[in-house]
What does this fold into?
Amino acid sequence: MKKSKDVPAKALQDSTAAFELALRTTDKGDYLLRLYVSGITPNSVRAIENVKKICTEHLHGHYELDIIDIYQQPIFAKEGQIVAAPTLVKELPPPLRKFIGDMSHTERILVGLDLRKKI
It folds into this structure.
């Protein structure tokens, strides 16, 4: 009989954390969004305004939005595997989705958030 190799502890912790995140419900509703920005640049400001507008108009309070400045908290960019800013990450509901840019393409964001059907 073949012995299976032990799963490394780090991989087990990562998969456990991912599972717990998938089970988690947000305090304010169904969507958990994280917007990573890089300081107070024009693109960052536009992205913040656009995401807030999308959330207000289309999610009607069923969301939790965290805005993270990767200049002030670079560890979050590393942990979230963020390679460009601004980046919007939809953590919940699954599947995980990432959007890069100033979030001015509202229709693309709505399709990515599964709020609209792709035409």
